[in-house]
Amino acid sequence: MEAVSIGRTILLKMAESPFLSRQATQRAFVKRATRRFMPGEAPEDALHAAQMLKAEGRGTVFTKLGENIVVPADAEAVRDHYLWFFDQLAMSGLDGHVSVKPTQLGLDLSYDRCLEHMMVLAARSESIGKTFWIDMEGFVYVDPTLKLYRALKAKHPQVGLAMQAYLYRTQADIDALMDLHPIIRLVKGAYAEPSSVAYPVKADTNRNYFDLSDRMLQAAAAGRCMPIFGTHDIPLLDRLVARAKAHGTPDRGYEIHMLYGIRDADQRRLRSEGRTVKTLISYGNAWYKWYMRRLAERPANVGFVGKWMVGEGTRGVAIRGHGPRIAPNARRSHSSTPVAQLPAGRLTRSFAVCGSRNSKRSCIHCLAGRPSCSAGAYLRLSSAARAASAKGG
Ligand SMILES: Cc1cc2nc3c(=O)[nH]c(=O)nc-3n(C[C@H](O)[C@H](O)[C@H](O)COP(=O)(O)OP(=O)(O)OC[C@H]3O[C@@H](n4cnc5c(N)ncnc54)[C@H](O)[C@@H]3O)c2cc1C
């Protein structure tokens, strides 16, 4: 097995550990590290970040973290939360949509009750002109989730479903849905699945992703399907954009969705090139499993967390890439400098600490090393540090 694959398997196993979940969620530095992938735990954090994305022409899909609830009242609370959230969306003017996990709405407890909750949410989503999304979870949930999708789609056409390219069965599942004019968000798949049901080799998943997407683009050109590409695989996306042109699929006949905090510069580029781009923003405090899956997708991310752990004191953490260049001895002061005005270069720990401690709204984007901060977050620097930064110090 390749090293990356072993790392992925270990991280996905760790995701299932209640002990590690308790440990991680009590550690402030782990919580801060999650800010790379989420603007904050509160729904208001997500809505605020979405307003910033809107300014760049990007839409948003929101999801409240949490899965596999075991008490019926929790499913009702999730349903009621989303009903409140739809009210916020209706008032916000955002191109914002909601995506839910069936097990967050009680699929483990009762299919019928879960469907009832989803019907309520899909109806409310439809009433404000939004697409209501269903995530795809582990393999054991594929059949009941497809059943939920069919039932919802029959009453509410604007319901979309995530499907996973790593599963052997997905091609047949998509073909079987075509009569419904489905809205399908194709993803590679984030769970630890055995080779009896999923491609064990990433190259095969990638190939299947392309083949499935190509078929959906053809169907989209004939008005039979709305494909959404939920991936950060930029070469793959570039090939799909070319295929869309070849098939005559209109620009608005497909969309690209990516996760908040990942490939942000590419999200902006694709948007500026005329693609419809939406960013999926997660919020809530049940982030442990979800966060482990993000690490598993790119085990190099673990090094990022490790650096946070090691550098918990005064040491600098340099993130290579194209982030803003900040003087290593940058200190907070009362003056603020828009991150977008800072020159590109290294990102230091001082910067990250500043971002995580000042306020919910500061510096969160920049942890991923971006050239500018699309949240409009502000970095507090002393004037000496600003001068050093401006000189590229
Ligand atoms: C909008 C959206 C919705 C999703 N919904 C579901 C769902 O319902 N069910 C499900 O099983 N999965 C879901 N996923 C997750 C998906 O299955 C993959 O695990 C995830 O997208 C990583 O695969 P990739 O397609 O980006 O390709 P990869 O080949 O894994 O990654 C391509 C490149 O993207 C970058 N990248 C990818 N992931 C990360 C990361 N975590 N951190 C930093 N860089 C990264 C890297 O540069 C990498 O080289 C969703 C993903 C997206 C974008």
Structure description:
With 393 residues, the chain is of the alpha/beta class. It is built from 15 helices and 12 strands. It has helices at residues 3-15, 18-26, 28-34, 43-55, 72-92, 111-127, 142-155, 170-177, 202-221, 234-247, 264-272, 288-297, 301-310, 349-358, 383-390, and strands spanning 59-64, 96-100, 132-134, 159-164, 183-187, 226-230, 255-259, 277-283, 323-324, 336-338, 344-345, 378-380. The protein has an 8-stranded parallel β-barrel, surrounded by 6 helices. The relative contact order is 0.12. The site of flavin-adenine dinucleotide has 24 residues, from strand 4, strand 5, strand 7 and helix 12.
Quick tags:
13% strand, globular, 393 residues, TIM Barrel, 2 domains, binds flavin-adenine dinucleotide, disordered C terminus, 47% helix, eight-stranded parallel barrel, alpha/beta, single chain, 15 helices
What is the average per-residue confidence, as pLDDT, rounded to a whole number?
A: 79
The helicity comes to 40-55%
Number of strands: 12
CATH topology of the largest domain: TIM Barrel
Approximate shape: globular
Small-molecule binders here are:
flavin-adenine dinucleotide
* N-end to C-end Cα span: 43 Å
Number of structural units classed as domains: 2
Over the alpha carbons, how many angstroms does the gyration radius reach?
Answer: 21 Å
* Portion in beta strands: 5-15%
Give the neighbour order of strands across the main sheet: 1-2-3-4-5-6-7-8
CATH architecture of the largest domain: Alpha-Beta Barrel
